[in-house]
Amino acid sequence: MKKFALLIALSMLFTTAVYAQDTMIEKEVKKIQRHQFTTNVQDREPADTLTTFDAVPGTNLYYFSELMNMQGMTVKQVWYKNDQVVYELPVLVSGPRWRVYSSMKAEQFKSGDKVKVEIVGDDGKVYATDDVTIP
Question: Is there a contact between 54 and 79 (Cβ–Cβ < 8 Å)?
Fold first, then answer.
């Protein structure tokens, strides 16, 4: 009976250790949790998701990203307009979950423009990319 109880206790311990290891591996894999263009950011959360943006004067186009497990890295949100870099926002990630956004004024765009943002790590790797068109 004692051997049976010991086996059960050891198997539970092993299962917990394997679960913790799987969770840690999964946690490390997730770098960019969310990334999107939006019309606004309130309380560090995007208002919506855009695939096109009507460049109405007086409005802004925002790009939001949520970074996971990248603390200590410097990442950049690199904005392109028609394949030309127009803005870079470098960010030092200071926690395990870090939300950041940048924006550009609608007046900087005209009909037919293609806007792209890449999230680039200090290792040179492009972690995410999104684009939006200006109708």
Answer: no
Beta-bridge partner residues of 61:
104
- Report the alpha-carbon distance of residue 78 to residue 118 in Å, rounded: 5
Which residues lie below 8 Å from residue 33, measured CB to CB, with a gap of 6+? 66, 67, 68, 97
Q: What is the pLDDT of residues 95-117, one digit of tens each?
A: 999 999 999 999 999 999 999 99
Number of Cα atoms under 13 Å in the Cβ half of residue 13: 6
Question: Cβ distance 92 to 109 under 8 Å?
Answer: no
The DSSP element (H or E) to which 3 belongs, if any, is: helix 2-29
Map residue 85 onto helix, strand or coil.
strand
Alpha carbon distance 74, 83 (integer Å): 23
In the 8-state DSSP scheme, what is residue 71? T
The dihedrals phi and psi of 114, each to the nearest 5 degrees, come to: -110, 125
Sheet hosting strand 32-38, strand order edge to edge: 32-38, 60-68, 97-105
pTM: 0.78
